[in-house]
């Protein structure tokens, strides 16, 4: 039986792995088969992670964290968690390969999943003009007009990135208050290719085989207009990814895993949680990393107490 | 990157459309994280089901005619061709069991 299994390989999972490996817990990181490295794998420049005065590329940062964890003996497994049994002294984690891993402690750092708009045709046209990943799909919109929905940092990053290819980028947000940081907002606002449409929501996506336009509603007047766009990039935030632990761990009203105070303790002994999956408010790489550190230390103390 | 054979705009008709066996084309690019994530999974499927399906890859940076013709707007996109026609489209990186399930009709 293992001392510790870490579910997730974003900044929280890998930081937990670095601390746990250094504490000789030989952690197993279940990194996911296709989403290893977490959300930062789909970003470009990360300019706010301390220690990188010139910025760092998201994938490069995650590969560095992984190597750092491996250097101290963390084991990385590129598979997905299918189900878990977290109560009792022996935790069981079933993987996509059907292998069952047993562990004394588990850190859940499963992150979050992109939020959808929840409007008709969003799923049908997903991959045909509707996208959640500008860095993956932006290059298909050379000299085209596209729209980004959202008002946070990720929406600004997507919009700014898309100007490399697109002739025109609309940023559509439901209110006047943009959550994005001043630096990201400034960069987007100074970009002549970007036009903001505020107090507006997207309620329709048009197109037979490919997106040809969107319908937007002014939230103040209720007026509806149609915008001709070839691409719609959705960046309206994300929801904690908790389906695998549903019914076993307590959740908060926001849907994140409930932890005690500033610790990573969940309602079950030996089960800890860290990163975006516990964080309804900040959701930064550095806060996730900090919370991964907390979880590794909590797990280490718990294991020490078991042997005494 | 993937060990799959690369096809190009120029070789597409011969390598894919004229093939007797079903061929899955993985449309990818160097800068696409999910493409890099899914490519080892495609390699595994290609070697496990070598008698059923060929898996090839097309770099969308180096080739534009075929990606445009088949309206690729998102990568990775994987299209299965049989008798010169698209018979299946899978969009986005998925875990191996999900991909194998998507491709079941060609792998059985």
Structure characterization notes:
The complex is a heterodimer of chains A (308) and B (108). Chain A folds into two domains: 2-114 and 238-307, FAD/NAD(P)-binding domain, CATH 3.50.50; 130-234, 3-Layer(bba) Sandwich (FAD/NAD(P)-binding domain), CATH 3.50.50.60. Helices cover 23% and strands 26% of the residues of chain A. Chain A is built from six helices and 19 strands. Chain A has helices at 11-22, 58-71, 134-137, 153-162, 182-189, 285-307, and strands at 2-7, 28-30, 45-46, 56-57, 75-77, 81-85, 91-95, 100-108, 112-114, 130-131, 145-149, 168-172, 194-197, 200-206, 213-218, 224-227, 231-234, 238-240, 271-273. In chain A, a hairpin with a 4-residue loop joins strand 7 (91-95) and strand 8 (100-108). In chain A, helix 1 (11-22) packs parallel to helix 2, helix 1 runs parallel beside helix 6 and helix 4 (153-162) runs parallel beside helix 5. The longest helix of chain A has 23 residues, at 285-307. Chain A is elongated and about 65 Å long. Chain B is of the alpha/beta class and 108 residues long. Chain B has a single domain, classed as Glutaredoxin. Helices cover 35% and strands 25% of the residues of chain B. Chain B starts with a strand and ends with a helix. The model of chain B has no long low-confidence stretch (mean pLDDT 93). The chains are: A alpha/beta (308), B alpha/beta (108). The interface between A and B is medium-sized, with 29 and 26 residues.
């Amino acid at each position: 039986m293992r001392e510790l299994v870490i579910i997730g390989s974003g900044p929280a999972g890998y930081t937990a792995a670095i601390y746990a490996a250094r504490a000789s817990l030989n952690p197993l990181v279940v990194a996911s088969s296709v989403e290893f490295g977490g959300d930062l794998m789909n970003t470009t420049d990360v300019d706010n992670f301390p220690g990188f005065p010139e910025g760092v590329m998201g994938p490069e940062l995650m590969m560095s964290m992984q190597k750092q964890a491996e250097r101290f003996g963390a084991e990385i497994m590129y598979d997905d968690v299918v189900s878990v049994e977290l109560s009792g002294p022996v935790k069981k984690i079933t993987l996509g390969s059907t292998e069952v891993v047993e562990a004394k402690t588990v850190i859940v750092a499963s992150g979050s999943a992109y939020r959808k708009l929840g409007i008709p045709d969003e799923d049908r046209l997903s991959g045909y003009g509707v996208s959640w990943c500008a860095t993956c799909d932006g290059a298909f919109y050379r000299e085209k007009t596209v729209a980004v929905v959202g008002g946070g940092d990720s929406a600004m990053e997507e919009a700014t990135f898309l100007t490399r290819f697109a002739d025109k980028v609309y940023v559509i947000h439901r209110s006047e208050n943009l959550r994005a940081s001043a630096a990201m907002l400034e960069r987007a606002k100074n970009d002549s290719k970007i036009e903001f449409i505020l107090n507006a929501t997207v309620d329709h996506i048009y197109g037979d085989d490919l997106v040809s336009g969107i319908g937007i509603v002014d939230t103040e007047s209720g007026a509806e207009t149609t915008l001709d766009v070839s691409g719609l990039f959705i960046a309206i935030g994300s929801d904690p990814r908790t389906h695998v632990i549903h019914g076993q761990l307590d959740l908060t009203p926001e849907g994140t895993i409930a932890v005690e105070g500033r610790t990573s303790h969940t309602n079950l002994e030996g089960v800890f949680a860290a990163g975006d999956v516990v964080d309804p408010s900040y959701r930064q790489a550095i806060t996730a990393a900090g919370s991964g550190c907390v979880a590794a230390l909590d797990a280490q103390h718990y294991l020490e107490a078991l042997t005494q | 990157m993937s060990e799959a054979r690369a096809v190009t705009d120029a070789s597409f008709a011969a390598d894919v459309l004229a093939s007797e066996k079903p061929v899955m084309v993985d449309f990818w690019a160097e800068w696409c994280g999910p493409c890099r994530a899914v490519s080892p999974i495609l390699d595994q499927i290609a070697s496990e089901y070598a008698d059923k399906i060929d898996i090839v890859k097309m770099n969308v940076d180096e080739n534009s005619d075929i990606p445009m013709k088949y309206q690729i707007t998102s990568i990775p996109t994987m299209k299965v061709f049989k008798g010169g026609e698209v018979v299946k489209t899978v969009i986005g990186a998925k875990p191996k069991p999900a991909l194998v399930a998507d491709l079941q009709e060609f792998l059985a």
